[in-house]
Structure formats: C-alpha cells, structure tokens
Records
---
Amino acid sequence: MQQNKRRISMVFLILGMALLMIGFSTDNKAFTFAAIACVLISLITGGRWMRPRKK
C-alpha cells in the first residue's frame, strides 16, 4: 500500500508541474489552480510532511 501511495504522489506531482507550465505559457488561471490542487494532493498522499518529527 505504501508503494502505491508514493506512485500516486509522484503522478500528481508531475501532473501538477505540467499543468503549471501550461498555465504559465497560456496565461490561464484555471490551469494554475488545477496545478496547485494537484501538488496539494501529491503532498497529502505522500504523507511525508504530516509525519511526526523524530527526536
């Protein structure tokens, strides 16, 4: 299950970066907002930023 989450996280990150480049090149805000959503989904599914820190 952990491997699937990492793969999904990577796919959403790449998709978000591609949408961001399309949004910048066409000056379309819809692509930019979709890119932000994809990157946030990538962060949530990756889960690295939500783990407690090791002491």
---
Amino acid sequence: MSSDEELYAYYFSDDILSKFSQRFSMEKAISEFISKAEKKTSKQIDNFAKQELGKYSQELLTSLVNSEKNHMDRTGDIIYQVAEKTGIKFPSIPQRLIELGFMSTRPHDRLAIPVSTPKVLTIRASACAAYVQLKSRLGEEKAKDLPCKYGCIANSKILFDELNIPVELESRTNMHEKGYCEFTFQSRE
C-alpha cells in the first residue's frame, strides 16, 4: 500500500474489525442466549435477555469507547479533532462507534443512518440475523417481543452514557412490524 492509499483509508482496519468480531460476535451471543432460553416463558425470556444480552451490550459498548480513544485511523482522528475543536461530540463520535460495532459484530445485518444532525441521530437496523435466529429457534411469538433489543447497539444509551452525552432514546418501529428496527437518539445538550 502506498502512502497516499494509507493516508486516505477511511474504513475500519481489518485488525480492529477482527478484534471485535472475535470477542463480541452477536450471532454467537444470540445463539448462546437461545440455547439457555428455549424452555422459558416469554416473561422469563425478557428478564433473562435483559440480564444476559444486557451484559453483552455493556461489555461491547464499553470496549468500543475505550478502544476508540486510540483513534484507529485517519477518519477517527478527524472526527475527534473536530469534536475537540468545536466541543460537539454528538452525533459524529457515537455514530462512528455504532458503525464500528455493527461492522464488526453484525457483518450481515444492514445499518442505515436516516438522520444525523447536531440534535438527532436515527439508526435503522434491517436484515437482522439475531431476529431471524430468534424467530426460527424460539418461534415467532417469543421473537415478536424482541429479546434481542437488550443486546442491540442501536437500542442502547450505554454508549452515550460512556461518552457523557445526555440523550433521550425512542424506539420508532421494530422488526416484526416493518422488517427493521429504528431508534432515535435526541441530544439533550
């Protein structure tokens, strides 16, 4: 790779993607969760998901925030430089971390950012492998309650809490209704 190519490499490095995919595979986390939850009722599944997948989400998001402090690449450096100079971290820093989380832990899912402004960040996740796996192994009725929401990066304020960015979270739609989940974070700053 020439120095010009390296200078303008705007994607996450394979090393960082590999680091997170090996440690925080969403497919593996969901599979292990389902194995332990198959005989539980819907209410038991929800409480169990909150505990098990919530732990997965907490560890992943904390790890993302801690690793990003190393500004893995040119894009990270620029995003952090702009945030430092302007004092505005929302939405660029959390959006970058959410994208890293999705690319490394959910490579087959689709992530879209329909809204990204200084006050609002909307995240849409579709083609969700976790939901498909829940539906096929637990049945549509139990999957409809979306126990996967507790392990979903896009449905968590943990990242924003770790970054000290106050937000309100609103779930707008979900997989069994529209074929995608959509979450909006409203900045309170």
